């Protein structure tokens, strides 16, 4: 890493090196222009990388069908390569850097023969923000270039910033031969380097996103005193015009994009509440001079889950998708419109693999089918997404898919308790990563697949923000996914989640007293606004009840989980767990 300098020498040297290794037919430096994007699209329509969609209903929108074995992140093939295994931690797969380079460079040898190599300078975050960071991705996939154009500030302005700063994250990507046996996503945090081969899927191939903005950035953040998190950022404006910003960490496919684009239910809308979208997946937060945490969304677009996105659940997302979108692995209707389960209208005739739709083959759209679209197209896009200093956070929310035990909402006692609540997060696995779906696992801060270093050190870093002079956000935990005995969701979710955000804001303002329990503060009877809500009172009681016996078991399981990190686990966190355990015992 160079800390100063004003030339692109290091970059051109690296590009030459990569070209010598991978042997592309041609090297193209991307400028990020409209003409370049149009040219790439035209090229991909010819090669079959993209398929046209109905140009009347979906102007300039296209479908990409990936290889059927390449539809999600691959956590077992994702490695963090630090000199010491312990620094990557039990939460990561690890390989010694020299071995890792040797292994993956052998796969890159000649990998781009017959292909074009694209050089993509990009900036994560507003182009003029001191919090933003630049990178360069080299790839042989035009699909990756088109997606990076939507997801990041890509091209000439990023290159100019790199030239000024002389430092950037190096990301090398090739789709290789798409053989899962020759697929790896490797991170070298000490070298600010990423190498990814054998997959074209977003999380594995759009290196600015998970690889840079989370795994590499979390490592940098630890050393530089900030946080790189798997969080949405949403702005909530009350009828008086005050804006509150909330960041929320939910695991992949657990509701971040939906909460970020929430449309308040009618009662709130009529009263004058508004919701603004700052980010839907990644949040970089830095302590400001005022002691508050200030957050930016390093991304410029959404790479969202298609299934379940409908006019009744997320009308904002549908409006965002009206034009200039790329759809990956969705189904198609007879008149060429994209289709997925939960869209609510239309009939699929072609499934995500391009076969005539037959329910016997499973869902028409892949459960992890995605859309890529510019954030600015969202009707609730917050103009302050471009603010160089970011937005100040009033609250941080953790949550996951918990079919039982975990209440709709509770608030942590203080920061240290909140860190425990985040560390203890559990959630059912989803189709966003390959492997079994619906298995409960610990996913601390929703960062299990994304933290670029040992979780024990990560929790210590989180705890370190609790120091004099800080005005830290309040920490909450939510669960939209409680199920009844018949397996139905007990809470209507989506727009109705506004009621929970409203309670949080009243807590922040000291306007809701809450009901203290051993696990934290839940809404006191009558505090949650239930006007017009179609949930039986008994269900609401159940959703806000704390099952002491169940939580005693949960805290024991959390203890076992934390102990798995051995000596490195901060004493402060272990003490916090013990405190909650004892409070539960006393309540029994
Ligand atoms: P993300 O991957 O974390 O951004 O999650 P999304 O917002 O894309 O949602 C993933 C899936 O969960 C989609 O199928 C949504 O329809 C569903 N979902 C999101 N929010 C809710 C909610 O409040 N309740 C329920 N039951 N499902 C939700
Ligand atoms: P998600 O983003 O969190 O919106 O699902 C992609 C991912 O995490 O793989
Ligand atoms: Mn994500
Ligand atoms: Mn999302």
Hetero compounds: guanosine-5'-diphosphate, 2-phosphoglycolic acid, manganese (II) ion
- What is the typical, i.e. mean, pLDDT? 97
* Cα end-to-end separation: 56 Å
How would you describe the shape? globular
- Count of alpha and pi helical runs: 17
Q: What fraction of the residues are assigned to beta strands by DSSP? A: 15-25%
| Main β sheet profile | 9 strands, mixed
Radius of gyration: 23 Å
Q: Show unreliable segments.
A: 1-5
Residue share in helix: 25-40%
The counted number of beta strands is: 30
Class from helix and strand fractions: alpha/beta
Written description of the protein model:
GO terms for molecular function: phosphoenolpyruvate carboxykinase (GTP) activity. Pathway: Carbohydrate biosynthesis; gluconeogenesis. It is an enzyme of class 4 (lyase). Its EC number is 4.1.1.32. The chain has 17 helices and 30 strands. It is of the alpha/beta class. Helix 2 runs antiparallel to helix 5, helix 12 crosses helix 17 and helix 16 packs antiparallel against helix 17. Strands 1, 4, 5, 6, 7, 8, 9, 10 and 11 form a nine-stranded mixed sheet that branches. The model is unreliable at 1-5 (pLDDT under 50). The longest helix is centred in the middle third of the chain and has 17 residues, at 208-224. Residues 73, 203, 252-253, 256-257, 281, 303, 305, 432 line the site of 2-phosphoglycolic acid. Residues 73, 203, 252-253, 256-257, 281, 303, 305, 432 line the site of 2-phosphoglycolic acid (PGA).
């Amino acid at each position: 890493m160079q800390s100063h300098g004003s030339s692109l020498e290091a970059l051109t040297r690296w590009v030459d090196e990569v070209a010598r290794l991978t042997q592309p037919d041609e090297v193209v430096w991307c400028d990020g222009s409209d003409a370049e994007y149009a040219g790439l699209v035209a090229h991909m329509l010819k090669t079959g990388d993209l398929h046209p969609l109905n140009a009347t209903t979906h102007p300039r929108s296209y479908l990409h069908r990936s290889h059927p074995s390449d539809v999600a992140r691959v956590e077992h093939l994702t490695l963090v390569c630090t000199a010491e295994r312990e620094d990557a931690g039990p939460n990561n797969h690890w390989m010694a850097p020299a071995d890792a380079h040797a292994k993956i460079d052998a796969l890159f040898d000649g990998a781009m023969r017959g292909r074009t190599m694209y050089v993509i300078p990009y900036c994560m975050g507003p182009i003029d923000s001191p919090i933003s960071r630049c990178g360069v991705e080299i790839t042989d996939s035009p699909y990756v270039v088109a997606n990076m154009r939507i997801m990041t500030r890509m091209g000439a302005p990023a290159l100019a910033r790199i030239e000024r700063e002389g430092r950037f994250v190096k990301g090398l990507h090739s789709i290789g031969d798409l053989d899962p046996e020759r697929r790896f996503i490797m991170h070298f945090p000490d070298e600010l380097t990423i190498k990814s081969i054998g997959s074209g899927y977003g999380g594995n191939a759009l290196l600015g996103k998970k690889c840079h903005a989370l795994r590499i950035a979390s490592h940098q953040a630890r050393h530089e005193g900030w946080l790189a998190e798997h969080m949405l950022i949403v702005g909530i404006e009350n009828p008086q015009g005050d804006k509150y910003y909330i960041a929320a960490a939910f695991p992949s496919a657990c509701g971040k994009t939906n909460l970020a684009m929430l449309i308040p239910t009618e009662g709130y809308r009529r009263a004058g509440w508004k919701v603004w979208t700052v980010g839907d997946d990644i949040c970089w937060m830095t302590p400001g001079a005022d002691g508050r945490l200030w957050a930016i969304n390093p991304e410029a677009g959404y790479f969202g889950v298609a299934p379940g996105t409908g006019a009744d659940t997320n009308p904002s997302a549908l409006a965002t998708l009206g034009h200039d979108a790329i759809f990956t692995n969705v189904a198609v209707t007879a008149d060429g419109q994209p289709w997925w389960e939960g869209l609510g209208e239309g009939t699929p005739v072609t499934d995500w693999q391009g076969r005539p739709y037959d329910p016997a083959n499973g869902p028409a759209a892949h459960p992890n089918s995605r859309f890529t679209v510019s954030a600015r197209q969202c009707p609730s896009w917050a103009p302050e997404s471009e603010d160089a200093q970011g937005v100040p956070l009033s609250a941080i929310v953790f949550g996951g898919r918990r079919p039982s035990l975990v209440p709709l909402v509770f608030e942590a006692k203080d920061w240290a308790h909140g860190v425990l609540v985040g560390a203890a997060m559990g959630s059912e696995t989803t189709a966003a990563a390959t492997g079994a779906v619906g298995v409960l696992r610990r996913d601390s801060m929703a960062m299990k697949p994304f933290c670029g270093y040992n979780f024990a050190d990560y929790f210590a870093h989180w705890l370190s923000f609790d120091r004099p002079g800080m005005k830290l956000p309040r920490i909450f935990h939510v669960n939209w996914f409680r199920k009844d005995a018949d397996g139905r969701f007990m809470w209507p979710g989506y727009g109705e989640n506004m009621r929970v955000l409203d309670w949080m804001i009243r807590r922040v303002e000291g306007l809701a007293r809450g009901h203290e329990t051993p696990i934290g503060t839940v809404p006191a009877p009558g505090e949650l606004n239930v006007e017009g809500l179609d949930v039986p009172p008994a269900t609401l009681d159940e959703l806000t009840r704390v099952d002491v016996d169940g939580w005693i078991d949960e805290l024991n399981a959390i203890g076992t989980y934390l102990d798995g990190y051995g000596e490195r686990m901060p004493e402060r966190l272990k003490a916090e767990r013990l405190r909650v355990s004892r409070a539960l015992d006393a309540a029994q």
